[in-house]
Amino acid sequence: AQSVSQHNHHVILSEAASLELGCNYSYGGTVNLFWYVQYPGQHLQLLLKYFSGDPLVKGIKGFEAEFIKSKFSFNLRKPSVQWSDTAEYFCAVNAGTGGFKTIFGAGTRLFVKA
Amino acid sequence: DTAVSQTPKYLVTQMGNDKSIKCEQNLGHDTMYWYKQDSKKFLKIMFSYNNKELIINETVPNRFSPKSPDKAHLNLHINSLELGDSAVYFCASSQRGENSPLHFGNGTRLTVT
Predict the structure, then answer these.
(1) Structural contact between residues A72 and A25, judged by C-beta atoms closer than 8 angstroms
(2) Fewer Cβ in 10 A, N or C end of chain B?
(3) What is the DSSP string of A47-92?
(4) Residue A90: which of B43, B50, B103 has the nearest Cβ?
């Protein structure tokens, strides 16, 4: 069965700092990977996704993620965070179930100090 | 235009009661889901439906009964509510396919007292 682990549960950064959030998945076959963001009190929204092609994918709001197959990783990055990036970030995988089951990591809470 | 809408937004009720949450999507998606988010923000899939048919039931107690009258609607009925049912319940939809992202509703915060 697939699983997703996110290494950082809480991250605190100052504005303009660089961000990298770790995500590892376990599944031996072809995977579809996603990062979602949940702003305080809101629903989850898609930041970016990877399913094939260039392993470096760009998403909304300046976020990007790199798929490294050999490391089963899909880390999220942003060169310079803003106060408005304060949110919960979820890595997710959808694989091997015909598209009917997306599994989420435990989430990383990011707090950006102004 | 709200893409995935669920009602109510808040639900406070006592143990033993029965309650329902409704969900509708206007995105034309074939697949709909219910997820439960606990107090630690962990998201767990409960059910997925495709064209009104149950595809995934993730070992959810049978007190939870989803119903999909058509592919744009997926409701969740919960019988005999327990304290542990307190959580935020998110409805979501997607096109069919493993590379299709989920579109979430705004969530229903259920509090059982």
Answers:
(1) yes
(2) N
(3) EEEESSS-SEEE-GGG-EEEEEGGGTEEEEEESS--GGG-EEEEEE
(4) B43
